[in-house]
């Protein structure tokens, strides 16, 4: 492999593809952009194939195709779709910068391990997304937008009827009634997609500001008869409800859910257990053939009580799809957006041609969770 050009930051990306992951943290167009910013790129052979980018595409853009071992030992910074495994951490040289969704809110032992190995860790989940300077770095927003779009397509594929109203020679078919729980980035994208497909859409979110956003997209806001007037939390996310508020919300949603054919839940909380919005009782109240897509399903639980990644069909004939990997299923667009986010984070930390931390900067203060803090 060629030596790093003097005075340039060397940025590496590994092949993270798997049975559930098709994204890549660097796309050819971003290679070109980074070169202009004084960054040379290394990418593991085959890393972009599931996102439909070949090694030749990367080489044409100016990247160097390398082995994983070369990247681990030579890169100054490595960008991840997810986060480095324990095995990868063991192979990284001290001083390497790691950029990814590191799970820093809930996995202190993992962050301590990064620190112990002398790595500088930049946790994307801690991005102060309310800052205008942080908008182009916001991976949560970009990937949740893809997720919301794909969730509706997933639901439409599983639903046994049309989404739009259709008049045929055999009669008129009524439109599907869809409920979207959580009107953040993913929820709003789901509303827009469902409306374009012709469904009758209703949405709910605990944040007071969401009502206007929902209605601006032509959906109806679900009135639960509850007042969570202080539902806005830090960083643009909904705040955690008290146990009493959550119980009241669950009961109200369970009651209203019986009116709908499709329910999509999008209330993810970065690095934390998602709130249960629909209980098992609520699922049991849905009609046979109803479909639920739980975008928050994970090993931590989901927005639907008892949901897990994958598809389940209840005894009552309700299809429950735990779908945490939806962004990966739109691999080209999701990778394009993710690559831009990671690259903008990287270049934010490049000052005078070197990677460095400025602890007077609000973004640096928030995101650097391990490593020397100057």
TrEMBL record:
<dbReference type="GO" id="GO:0008750">
    <property type="term" value="F:proton-translocating NAD(P)+ transhydrogenase activity"/>
</dbReference>
<dbReference type="Pfam" id="PF05222">
    <property type="entry name" value="AlaDh_PNT_N"/>
</dbReference>
<dbReference type="InterPro" id="IPR007698">
    <property type="entry name" value="AlaDH/PNT_NAD(H)-bd"/>
</dbReference>
<dbReference type="InterPro" id="IPR007886">
    <property type="entry name" value="AlaDH/PNT_N"/>
</dbReference>
<comment type="function">
    <text>The transhydrogenation between NADH and NADP is coupled to respiration and ATP hydrolysis and functions as a proton pump across the membrane.</text>
</comment>
<dbReference type="GO" id="GO:0006740">
    <property type="term" value="P:NADPH regeneration"/>
</dbReference>
<dbReference type="GO" id="GO:0005886">
    <property type="term" value="C:plasma membrane"/>
</dbReference>
<keyword id="KW-1278">Translocase</keyword>
<dbReference type="InterPro" id="IPR036291">
    <property type="entry name" value="NAD(P)-bd_dom_sf"/>
</dbReference>
<feature type="domain" description="Alanine dehydrogenase/pyridine nucleotide transhydrogenase N-terminal">
    <location>
        <begin position="12"/>
        <end position="147"/>
    </location>
</feature>
<keyword id="KW-0520">NAD</keyword>
<comment type="similarity">
    <text>Belongs to the AlaDH/PNT family.</text>
</comment>
<dbReference type="InterPro" id="IPR008143">
    <property type="entry name" value="Ala_DH/PNT_CS2"/>
</dbReference>
<dbReference type="Pfam" id="PF01262">
    <property type="entry name" value="AlaDh_PNT_C"/>
</dbReference>
<dbReference type="GO" id="GO:0050661">
    <property type="term" value="F:NADP binding"/>
</dbReference>
<feature type="domain" description="Alanine dehydrogenase/pyridine nucleotide transhydrogenase NAD(H)-binding">
    <location>
        <begin position="156"/>
        <end position="322"/>
    </location>
</feature>
<keyword id="KW-0547">Nucleotide-binding</keyword>
<protein>
    <recommendedName>
        <fullName>proton-translocating NAD(P)(+) transhydrogenase</fullName>
        <ecNumber>7.1.1.1</ecNumber>
    </recommendedName>
</protein>
<dbReference type="GO" id="GO:0016491">
    <property type="term" value="F:oxidoreductase activity"/>
</dbReference>
<keyword id="KW-0521">NADP</keyword>
């Amino acid at each position: 492999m060629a030596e790093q050009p003097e005075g340039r930051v060397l940025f590496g990306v590994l092949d993270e593809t798997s049975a559930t992951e098709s994204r890549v943290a660097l796309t050819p167009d971003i290679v070109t952009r980074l070169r202009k910013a004084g960054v040379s790129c290394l990418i593991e052979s085959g890393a972009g194939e599931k996102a439909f980018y070949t090694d030749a595409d990367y080489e044409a853009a100016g990247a160097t195709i390398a082995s994983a071992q070369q990247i681990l030992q030579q890169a100054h910074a490595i960008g991840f779709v997810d986060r480095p495994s324990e095995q990868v951490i063991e192979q990284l040289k001290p001083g390497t910068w790691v950029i990814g969704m590191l799970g820093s809110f809930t996995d202190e032992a993992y962050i301590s391990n990064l620190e112990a190995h002398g790595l500088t860790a930049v946790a994307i989940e801690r991005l102060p997304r309310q800052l205008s300077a942080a908008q182009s770095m916001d991976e949560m927003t970009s990937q949740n937008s893809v997720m919301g779009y794909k969730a509706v397509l997933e639901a439409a594929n599983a639903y046994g009827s049309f989404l739009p109203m259709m008049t045929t020679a055999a009669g008129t078919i009524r439109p599907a009634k869809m409920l979207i729980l959580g009107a953040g980035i993913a929820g709003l994208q789901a509303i827009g997609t469902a409306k374009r497909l012709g469904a009758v859409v209703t949405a709910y979110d605990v944040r007071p500001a969401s009502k206007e956003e929902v209605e601006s997209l032509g959906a109806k806001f679900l009135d639960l008869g509850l007042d969570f007037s202080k539902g806005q939390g830090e960083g643009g996310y909904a705040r955690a409800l008290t146990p009493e508020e959550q119980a009241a919300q669950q009961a109200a949603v369970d009651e209203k859910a019986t009116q709908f054919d499709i329910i999509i839940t999008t209330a993810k909380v970065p690095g934390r257990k998602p709130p249960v919005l629909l209980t098992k009782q609520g699922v049991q109240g849905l009609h046979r053939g109803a479909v639920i897509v739980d975008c928050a399903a994970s090993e931590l639980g989901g927005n639907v009580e008892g949901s897990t990644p994958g598809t389940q069909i209840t005894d009552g004939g309700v299809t429950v799809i735990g779908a945490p990997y939806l962004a990966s299923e739109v691999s080209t667009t999701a990778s394009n957006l993710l690559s831009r986010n990671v690259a903008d984070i990287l270049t934010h930390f490049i000052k005078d041609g070197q990677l460095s931390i400025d602890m007077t900067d609000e973004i640096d203060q928030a995101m650097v969770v391990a490593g020397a803090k100057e």
